[in-house]
Amino acid sequence: MAYLVNDPNDFTDELIDGFVAANSGIVRRVPGGVARAQKSATPAVAIVTGGGSGHYPAFGGLVGHGLADGAAMGNIFASPSAQQVYSVAKAVTRGKGVLLTYGNYAGDVLNFNRAQERLRDEGIDCRTVVVTDDISSASPTERSKRRGIAGDLTVFKCAAAAAGLGYDMDAVEQVAKRANDRTRSIGVAFSGCTLPGADTPLFSVPEGKMAVGMGIHGEPGISEVDMPTADELATLMVDQLWAEIPDGVSPEGAKLVVLVNGLGSVKYEELFVLYNRVSQLVEARGVTIIEPEVGELVTSFEMAGASLTFFWVDDELESLWAAPAYTPAFRKGSLHTDLSLESLDADELAGEQIPEASAVSREAAAKAVVVIEAIGAVIDANADELGRLDSIAGDGDHGIGMQRGAQAAVVEARRVAAAEAGVGTLLGLSGAAWADRAGGTSGALWGEILTTIGARLGDAEPPTAAALAEAVTQSAAAVTRYGGAKVGDKTLLDALVPFAEALTLAAASSPDSIRDAWAASVAPAEAAASATADLLPKVGRARPHLEKSLGTPDPGAVSMALIISAVANTL
Amino acid sequence: MAYLVNDPNDFTDELIDGFVAANSGIVRRVPGGVARAQKSATPAVAIVTGGGSGHYPAFGGLVGHGLADGAAMGNIFASPSAQQVYSVAKAVTRGKGVLLTYGNYAGDVLNFNRAQERLRDEGIDCRTVVVTDDISSASPTERSKRRGIAGDLTVFKCAAAAAGLGYDMDAVEQVAKRANDRTRSIGVAFSGCTLPGADTPLFSVPEGKMAVGMGIHGEPGISEVDMPTADELATLMVDQLWAEIPDGVSPEGAKLVVLVNGLGSVKYEELFVLYNRVSQLVEARGVTIIEPEVGELVTSFEMAGASLTFFWVDDELESLWAAPAYTPAFRKGSLHTDLSLESLDADELAGEQIPEASAVSREAAAKAVVVIEAIGAVIDANADELGRLDSIAGDGDHGIGMQRGAQAAVVEARRVAAAEAGVGTLLGLSGAAWADRAGGTSGALWGEILTTIGARLGDAEPPTAAALAEAVTQSAAAVTRYGGAKVGDKTLLDALVPFAEALTLAAASSPDSIRDAWAASVAPAEAAASATADLLPKVGRARPHLEKSLGTPDPGAVSMALIISAVANTL
């Protein structure tokens, strides 16, 4: 469990402050995460990574000379928001584009993709290479669905070394892709971890058992076996990775970077015992190990587990891997770089302008504040239950994530209403605040919903039932587009789409009354949310079939129905 | 607990092999531990550290450029033997003497002091600075009795940087002493750890409590309190260290190196949260923090705990602390040193010569083999019980340590008897093997006992009861001298001294029969061993009053009596 905690809600902020204070010569805080303290003199492709906190040294600990230029740091085990990724990328852009590279998790993909879109809209060349090294998380024919674990490091490191050598964007992207194509990992777990502020473990492994392939957030593995000896585990891991030698690599005479990673409470001495046998097995097969790493590279708090990574290098990747680096947590080779600080421009991200709005739209905005307050209240009242529902098949943070987002939206809605915003701007900025503060998948989607509705309503016309129905329908389309889910996949869409359809019908019969149209659509949304109990989740997780969630409604759909019902009472 | 284990008896060997394999560019294996892979071109004072394994990066992880030249690596939580320390020191001596520096624990002091004596006997200038930073382990007026914890790093680092700059032995020693004088730490623990192969924790902390001042082997702390918040803990630790500002240091305007150390399963994110408040508190008091470190510096497997270290630097210590270093686990600053490998002389430690012996002494040596085999057998049969006795007030390794030592002595006795050694040489070499293989305090003392007896008996004269009584009496004196204990301190001396006295009396009345004299002395030794149940331990532990051991005899005295009794049956 986590012992050194104040208010769990402040944990991520405080750890980032402490991390930056302890490493002020190497990293600096920027909106959304951290960036290198030193600015490169010459233009170069910027490498931006990120993810949930709780995996140190991933991701902030890997920012510095020869590695990432910046890291977006989300809440505990929750992806950073699109705004965070965007802000970090903007802070580190050095004129030759931005490569986003991170582990393949649904929430991260969603938020990094949104940030990429925004950067591209601004004319910045932005590319993405997601890391997919975990062989347990999908079959070889579905490599793109695999999660990223300790192999993150090989991809980030080689991409960054290439950027440091002045490679252009195409070349850096190719290096990162090739490094990912040549990296395979397998993890095992012996126990789970308990997040800051929680009383019970987020997940667990039965005593005396080992979960083969369990992910760094407790994602189910491929099997559960009796605890092996260290040597037996080494054999198991090497055999599994040997069955996955990348296309085009011949093991005979090959050079291999080997990483042995500890998840948290399997300690260094044990990792060395494991590496001892791994290195013997690998060398017995005629492969030369170069520049291995044994230690804690991607952790999950005090989770007891370990992973083995094989990175099959060619000559170019070998020299990129071997290049010097100097970050808070990863230092390698001899640096001849001047590490002295160069002064940096302060926060260059301009504040937004509140556009002028019509009187009717400002009136609607005042009403929208009440609506958003009601959303905040209903989420507050149900946060524990939403967390409980989410813990059955997910990571249990839906309640706290929704709460964080809704509270941020309330604060922002009040602020922009006082600045005389129209309803469109108010919903847009409130949605952005929600997504930024909540992080994770649900944060990104709720940000999208509010922003889309706001864009449709605008700051001029009075909202009508028809316009609102159209806006809600558009928001469902936007969620489908960003989230990659469809109705029946056990997500919030299962409540949102029936609601949008009911609202469209009701608006046709009650075009003058938002209140009546909305009220008529609550029951279909609630029924649809309950019906998700009969579904299996289809997206958003690398292991699609989580039977244990059968019989439990989807927490995202439930919170959607709760909000729809609460809003009805305010109209 | 430890998960990645083969035979627990092989754990230390395997971890050292794996560690060296993973860091072959930086360290190499030498008899007794590890040494820097690179040899310095110019003569310099060699810095040698060491201690029990299980504290990585202490101690092998701190060997490399700008830090230690070598580390003697003992078994899990057991000091290295004198032979190990000696071997490592010999391997790294570079012509300007050897500074031994390590944490202040009885077993380490014993073994490092013996090694120092041997090095000095060979004309090598050898000095010692023990680290005593743990303020919880003795009062300010008894600073020399304090244990060494994470403050090890500041002392090793500054001494090594000074050696690297070409300081002579006097100057390096002074730097190490000054660094130790200016370093203070306080640790807390939330849970214990379970050693490789063990089923139950070596020690524990009640759920929801924090042990203030608990040591890295579970040594009792100064109080047990309810779990505080991270901020409350920061305040507690800073206040305690503030009450211990070293003489001659004025905090106003001072420069302070701050270390936040995690013991194993209190993870990086939590350590950063703690550091965040620590740095605020320190800076609010007008002190400037320079080059802090937050991470795992001295661990205890998966023990949940943390420590805070203040190192009050002057200008010279500041620059020594800031100097570059490059070791497996500690890398700092920009290195302009050529890290290419220079070929090293292979093991330079010559094998011993077996001196010629008289026929009667060779006969006695054959008898001694039987005696030592009987010792091995009785220890084997009682190892579990000895471990249980030791776990009540100690670290539970007395059984396994004695077993390891006695087995090594048996192997060595057989080998040298076959090489026609006399009884004196046989006992001397068997004692050295015991001490080398067992490590720890009991290993050093049993090595001393056998070596002293062997020296008195020699390889010429037939052993008589009188000579043996004199030899045993001398061995008790040697143990007193090396161990710093006396009768009544609840150690093996409580059995050995009454035995020596009884044997002296019995030899006077039965001068011709070793068998009779010995048999007459068994009962007094057994009675004295049992009587240690009424005593409290006085030495060998930094916290002298371990009431919980009352009612339990001392495991060292018990094993002494068992051996005395077993030997009687072989004579």
UniProtKB/TrEMBL annotation, chains A, B:
It comes from the Bacteria. GO terms for cellular component: cytosol. InterPro entries: DhaK_dom, DhaL_dom, DhaL_dom_sf, Dihydroxyacetone_Kinase. This is Dihydroxyacetone kinase. GO terms for biological process: glycerol catabolic process; phosphate-containing compound metabolic process. GO terms for molecular function: ATP binding; glycerone kinase activity. PANTHER family: TRIOKINASE/FMN CYCLASE, TRIOKINASE_FMN CYCLASE. Transmembrane segments: none annotated. Residues 7-330 form the DhaK domain. SMART domains: Dak2 (SM01120). Keywords: ATP-binding, Kinase, Nucleotide-binding, Transferase. Its EC number is 2.7.1.29. Residues 366-569 form the DhaL domain. Pfam families: Dak1, Dak2.
